[in-house]
Amino acid sequence: MPPVFQSRVGIPCRVGDDGRMRTVAEHQDAVRALLAPLAHRGTVDVVAVNAAALAGSRDVDRVLAADVASPIDHPPFDNSQMDGYAVRSVEAVPGRVFAVAARIAAGDPVCTLEPGTAAPIMTGAAVPVGADAIVPIEASIPDSFPPEEGEHTVEFSAPAIPGAFVRPRGSDLEGGRMLLPAGTRLGAAQWGVLAASGIREVRVRRRLKVLVLSTGDELRGAGDELESGQIYDANSATMAIGVTECGATVADVRTVTDDAAALSAYLASHGRSADLILTTGGVSKGAYEVVRDVFEPAGVSFSSVAMQPGGPQGLGLATLTDDAGVQFERPVVAFPGNPVSALVSFEMFLRPVLRELDGLAPRRASSLAYLAEPLVSPGGKHQVRRGRFDAAGAVELVGGPSSHLLHGYATSTLLVHVPLGVSHLDAGAPVETWSID
Ligand code: AMP
Ligand code: MG
Fold this sequence. Notes:
Molybdenum Cofactor Biosythetic Enzyme, Chain A; Molybdopterin biosynthesis moea protein, domain 2; Molybdopterin biosynthesis moeA protein, domain 3; 4 domains; six-stranded mixed β-sheet; 8 helices; 28 strands; about 20% helix; about 30% strand; disordered N terminus; binds adenosine monophosphate; binds magnesium ion; MoeA_linker/N; Molybdopterin molybdenumtransferase; magnesium; metal-binding; molybdenum
């Protein structure tokens, strides 16, 4: 006889078709395995290394698709690290008087230093041929540059060491060597070194494209008048924005009705446009389960995961047919419709995988914290509650466990995990929390 988990509040949990519910870890693994082929998505995008175009653009946050070699030495020529005097170090002993040569500014072409002279040189300026050291202006007598007109002399208070304050050509990286390897996430420093190399465009990994479908006859969009029994669609926003936060793009975001023929028609015309189809609603065992009705015959499995909220889950590779009658396959991840169920499902199952596929840190920051109040949980399920830290640093719960409490979620900063097998926790008990603020 299959086990029936008895929760503390006395509601027996439903047992899956195979005799038991999937654990959260098993479903996480199944989602990871289903989406693993998306790591090898073929084509790449080409993005211009252009600060003005990149500023404020989503292209800032991309991942290199191919190794990039440096076309130039970094730095490209020996240059001064200080404002000071370029000298021949063998000549620069304390007490020796030098004739001051012409000034060398950053951007001036390389010149030659005559023996017995010291050239005022600015930071970043090319070290003249013949010079092998820079004496900082602070170690010079006088310790400020003379006017450009007239003839002047300078002495130094300390000997110059060969190579002192010279930034040698290629000392950061020699030309031809690896500048950044494939898989590098591009941020300010990485875009900077590409720009500093004079590179005009880079090949980056194509973003994953996700089709976000919210199902339900009751759903209306902002701007619509709500009639009796209708609600505004929350999941299109939570899922589309969640997907975007994972580095993916939304191929289309749509509210569809509970009409299976209409959903099939939509998939025939739009299903190919995405790498992944993400749906909410219509996965339970009610009378109008459009997602289940359309995708189960297409090969997607619907099962119960031992998690609260977010028990009913659909997952699998769907074989669909396009408008031309040609079959194609797409992975489908189907979450339940209650907004908190959909969000918790997204956090537990999809967010880590999508982020990993985009080269982003997959996990939320987690910490062990102490409950400010007792809680009950269905012992046969992993419960995910919403909470925040109180003034004493303990975890207070925001709202109850119900999966319609989206405002409670939106005003929480923590997900609070109550593991499988735990049906009651006292105030002061340690819990794992994930930071979601
Ligand atoms: P379902 O999973 O389709 O049975 O929906 C479960 C509950 O979630 C119902 O109360 C729905 O009205 C609600 N719901 C489903 N989809 C959405 C959505 N996109 N936005 C807000 N609530 C939803
Ligand atoms: Mg529904």
